[in-house]
Amino acid sequence: MPERLAEMLLDLWTPLIILWITLPPCIYTAPMNQSPVLMSGSPLELNRLSEEQRILNRSKRGWVWNQMFVLEEFSGPEPILVGRLHTDLDPGSKKIKYILSGDGAGTIFQINDITGDIHAIKRLDREEKAEYTLTAQAVDWETNKPLEPPSEFIIKVQDINDNAPEFLNGPYHATVPEMSILGTSVTNVTATDADDPVYGNSAKLVYSILEGQPYFSIEPETAIIKTALPNMDREAKEEYLVVIQAKDMGGHSGGLSGTTTLTVTLTDVNDNPPKFAQSLYHFSVPEDVVLGTAIGRVKANDQDIGENAQSSYDIIDGDGTALFEITSDAQAQDGIIRLRKPLDFETKRSYTLKVEAANVHTDPRFSSRGPFKDTATVKIVVEDADEPPVFSSPTYLLEVHENAALNSVIGQVTARDPDITSSPIRFSIDRHTDLERQFNVNADDGKITLATPLDRELSVWHNITIIATEIRNHSQISRVPVAIKVLDVNDNAPEFASEYEAFLCENGKPGQVIQTVSATDKDEPKNGHYFLYSLLPEMVNNPNFTIKKNEDNSLSILAKHNGFNRQKQEVYLLPIIISDSGNPPLSSTSTLTIRVCGCSSDGVVQSCNVEAYVLPIGLSMGALIAILACIILLLVIVVLFVTLRRHKNEPLIIKDDEDVRENIIRYDDEGGGEEDTEAFDIATLQNPDGINGFLPRKDIKPDLQFMPRQGLAPVPSGVDVDEFINVRLHEADNDPTAPPYDSIQIYGYEGRGSVAGSLSSLESTISDSDQNFDYLSDWGPRFKRLGELYSVGESDKET
Question: Which residues form the Cadherin domain (predicted)?
Fold first, then answer.
């Protein structure tokens, strides 16, 4: 506490001493036990100054101010006196009043208007506000008139050490490579102090390490943290906690301090070689294992991490380097031993390998620590397994002539059981590869024979599969492809390559090439085709044509003379004998058709038909076809026009509501009842309304032309209705021009079980005299005529 009090007093009086030294002559400084008093020289005193003094001294106004100081954080029982205002105009008669305005006037700072004393009435904090600007003025007590102009001055809050240092970004984390040399920089930290850095040592910081020795050190002023020990090993300890202190007052006793933590992590470097967990590994594998199968895993441990722990594996020695391989697993960091080639228990039953693991990424700084690799021995034991038969060759190629005899031996395949027991083998053909069953194989010795004739021209190659099966274990089978090539024999005669047809111009010249032909042969001799051409013996002295063999194995036909005439002979047939060079040679006769044609002067064929002579001069065949097409088109137009005119002249049916034509239907037999499905559809009947009785039929063409019938004359009263109906029925039956309005339907099926009874009126027990037909007159004009007929009949009967 005495030391703390001494520091506070020093902080309090230091600015006052500085003020006393720096104040101008007109400023009075109070004794040590009083507050400073700011005064101004009076005008009278200024007048007493000599002229020389006026020249030597700078002129001053009534008020000359400087700074005032007040200690922060002061909390005494009474307001603290900051300073005193005084002017020479004040004779002490209390007629002058001091006024204070500006920052904190009345709230923080209070002035005694009589004495001019300024007090701080509140506790001040420099970190909140470091200085206050105020204005002082002396006025008349009674009139409040200013006695002098206002003057401005500053009250500065004097700092004390009341803020401890702070690490704003803590806690901190840093990394440094392991095995670093002494003094390697790790990181730096920074603390801040809210106290005034200019005044005193309140903000002067000194750094130190409270926890973390002897591994790390710190620069007291720069706070740079460095390694204090060399070759720190991550594998021994990876993380360190360092406690750092920052202390103000230059680190002296009584200063305030703050702390933070720094976590230092050692990063890995490749300073450790890989090491196999064991020096000898044992694995076993069946001899029939599939190629590429993993046989076992070996692993070399590395204390490093990440890419520094990555190792590559190799087989560097042993008797199985050609049969086995090793690959690295990047995830598991181990080596996988796989099979490269087939194993055979009967040939070799165990293998020894020497495997090496080496770091992929090495650091030359640590090469002195020795090679970053390790080796181990791997022993692999081959286990016996029941293996399928093994053919003497992976593939077979056989040849056979296409004229080979049936059941002749083409070739032979052989296979054996590689096991110690050596089971017998049976051979067969996979018929999916020999659908036509052209070959057979002997089940015991594997000899392949011909089952059907071969034709090289149809198929040159035959690919079959031979199956070998163990007799003792039918599940053990093997397959081998057999390719059979069919060899050619001369069994096809040559012939023309295509159907040739030559054209000979009538105005051709002797020796002119008419046509060039070539031949083809389905056979394929080893030395290629060579054809011989000749005419038939009886046509060797052909008067019209001759032949010439060309170097490209083709044949040219030439004309012997000119003056060919197609009217005399239009077509010539020239038989040609073609022979090959086989042994024995084969030949065939092909006939070349030569047509005589009319050609232009430059030899272009224009027409090869004799009929061309009868064509009009200057009129080609195309022109004649065009003319014929135009004629046919005109005929079609005329026919269509006549047909349309005939349709327009056909008479239409004129309907008249007052003209009624009877529809008489005669039944010779009773209907079939409800079960008669063959009855006539009565809906097809129509009611004619033709005028004058003429209504031509459209469904048939009448053979005889009848005159139109006259309209029906009114029936006189008293006519016999039965006679009238019979006459009309006779006319309708014999008039082919009448529409089919009247129809007679014969019902030949009576039906069974009709509950409705018969609808026929032929056998009705009620006579016509019992019926009253007066209601027909109420049915309208269409039934007027029918009503007259029945009413006339009833009146006749009554009379």
Answer: 87-167, 168-276, 277-391, 392-496, 496-618
Instruction: Identify the weakest region by mean pLDDT among 153-162, 184-193, 712-721.
Output: 712-721
Measured in whole angstroms, the distance separating CA 47 from the mean position of its chain's CA atoms is 104
**626-641, pLDDT tens digit by residue?**
899 999 999 999 999 8
**What's the pLDDT at 647?**
75
Tokens of 146: 């200013």
Angle between helix 721-734 and helix 784-798 axes, rounded to 10 deg:
140
Tell me the pairing of strands 477-487 and 396-401. Answer: parallel
E strands present in 103-183: 109-111, 117-120, 131-140, 151-158, 172-177
Question: Which one-letter DSSP state was computed for residue 387?
Answer: P
The DSSP 8-state label assigned to residue 366 in this structure reads G
Question: For residue 252, what are the contacts with CB-CB under 8 A and spacing of at least 6?
Answer: 201
Is the CB of residue 416 less than 8 Å from the CB of residue 390? yes
- CATH architecture of the domain with residue range 275-383: Sandwich (2.60)
Residue 696 in tokens: 């031509």
Query: What six digits make up the tokens of 60?
Result: 């001053």
Phi, psi of 588 (to 5 degrees): -150, 160
- Name residue, tokens 């060399």: 230
Read off the pTM. 0.43
- Cβ-contact 410, 448 below 8 angstroms: yes
DSSP state of 180: P
Torsions phi, psi of 414, nearest 5? -130, 145
Fold of the domain built from segment(s) 390-487: Immunoglobulin-like (2.60.40)
The pLDDT tens digits for 188-205 are: 999 988 877 777 787 889
The single residue listed with the structure tokens 């200085």 is 131
Question: Going by DSSP bridges, is the β-strand pair 275-276/294-301 parallel, antiparallel, or unpaired?
Answer: antiparallel
From the list 271, 264, 190, the residue with the least C-alpha distance to 229 is 264
The one-character DSSP state at 639 is: H
Cα–Cα distance for residue pair 587/575, rounded to 1 Å: 13
Q: Is 495-607 assigned to CATH 2.60.200.30? A: no
Burial of 115 (0-12, 13-18, 19+ CB in 10 A): middle
Give me the CATH code for the 172-267 domain, please. Answer: 2.60.40.60
Q: Which long-range contacts (CB under 8 A, 24 or more apart) does 130-133 make?
A: 130/156, 130/157, 130/196, 131/155, 131/156, 131/157, 132/102, 132/103, 132/104, 132/108, 132/156, 132/157, 133/102, 133/103
The 3-state secondary structure of 572-604 reads EEEEEEEECCCCCCCEEEEEEEEEEEEECCCCC
pLDDT at 401 over 60: yes
CATH 2.60.40.60 domain span(s) along the chain: 67-158, 172-267, 275-383, 390-487, 495-607
Tokens of 18: 């500085």
d(CA 427, CA 425): 7
Ramachandran assignment for 508, one of left (phi > 0), alpha (psi -120 to 50 degrees), beta (any other): beta
Q: How many CB atoms lie within 10 A of CB 255?
A: 20
Q: Are 521 and 580 in contact (CB under 8 A)?
A: yes
Residue 314 to residues 329, 357, 655, 677, Cα–Cα distance (Å): 12, 7, 115, 100
As a whole number of angstroms, the distance between CA 607 and CA 618 comes to 14
Query: Do residues 250 and 161 make contact, with C-beta atoms less than 8 angstroms apart?
Result: no
Partnered with residue 96 across adjacent β-strands are: 140
Q: What is the pLDDT of residue 92?
A: 65
Two tokens at 784? 């007027």
State the average pLDDT over residues 59-78.
63
Give the Å distances, CA to CA, from 395 to 390, 413, 426, 482.
12, 9, 18, 6
**For residue 404, which of 462, 355, 446 has the smallest C-alpha distance?**
462
Q: Given 3.40.1190.20, 3.40.50.300, 2.60.40.60, 3.30.160.70, which CATH number is that of 67-158? A: 2.60.40.60
Q: Bridge partners of 173?
A: 263
Strands 280-286 and 373-383 turn out to be: parallel
- Pairing outcome for strands 275-276 and 131-140: unpaired
